Automatic annotation (TrEMBL):
Its main location: cytoplasm. GO terms for molecular function: protein-lysine N-methyltransferase activity. GO terms for biological process: methylation. It is found in: Cytoplasm. It comes from Pseudogulbenkiania ferrooxidans 2002. Transmembrane segments: none annotated. Its EC number is 2.1.1.-. This is Ribosomal protein L11 methyltransferase. Keywords: Cytoplasm, Methyltransferase, Ribonucleoprotein, Ribosomal protein, S-adenosyl-L-methionine, Transferase. The keyword Cell inner membrane does not apply.
Amino acid sequence: MAWLQATIDTDSVVAEQLADALMDAGALSAAIEDALAGTELEQPIFGEPGEPVDKLWSQSRIIALFDEAADVALIIAAASTQCGIALPHYAEERVEEQDWVRLTQAQFEPIRISERLWITPTWHESPDPAAVNLQLDPGLAFGTGSHPTTRLCLQWLDANIKGGESVLDYGCGSGILAIAALKLGAASAVGIDIDPQAVRASQDNAAQNQVVARFYLPDATPPAQYDVVLANILANPLRLLGELLSGHVRAGGKIVLSGILQEQAEELSAIYATWFDMEPPVFDEGWTRLTGTRHATV
Ligand SMILES: C[S@@+](CC[C@H](N)C(=O)[O-])C[C@H]1O[C@@H](n2cnc3c(N)ncnc32)[C@H](O)[C@@H]1O
């Protein structure tokens, strides 16, 4: 079994419309990426939940997959006509059947977070069995440890969990932060996510790591206060969640915020200074970690 793949360079303004038209005309899949990805001109563009992305890559590339018997030229011509654009430049190649599982797994290697903390996929031996090892596979929920926003939180946990803390992981994704906190010695951990798939993935991952954590949708958040509250979400939800998150941190407890772009750090830090003594931000690849200690009274 084989497929045909077309790599189509296109104007970013029509990329989404063209990808949809390709699907309508018979493509099996059509993914849009930055045509300059992997070069010095690559443009990192991030969206906020619930908000349209207001920036486009300067050039887009559509990677479309077709059945082996498809007439790719005809489909691209039909899709271009539907979008009212000239036939774009494209390259076509044959993609042979491969061991996709093995190929995917090969992309996920163990990740060393710190001297003593590793994140390892289940199909790998841990490189350091004596370390604190989290077993985590890429799945439907965000959080494998490879992203700087997660790494910043894991590094904070590694340096600051001394043993016995209660932890709230708000926006838990895969549950990675709650699970890491428990593995590092926290006494209890609760995770919250708006995505039911993330709640399920977190439960599965906790079981895989033989730790007991509780995961809920926001409506079921226990009305408790914690020693540590982590929230790796994004700037916009963090702007809106300040009151709620601060209410879950005991006086003298810590807040750890991530998912904030470097240029958003000052504004977010000022918002959370309402409830916390904020520390200087820590940056990693353009992302920010903010931490603070809860005021005794507000
Ligand atoms: C960037 S992921 C972080 C996952 C994981 N905690 C980590 O550090 O890798 C953000 C998660 O927050 C969840 N989320 C976004 N907005 C939320 C909100 N308002 N309340 C709860 N969870 C939210 C998303 O569904 C997603 O799973």
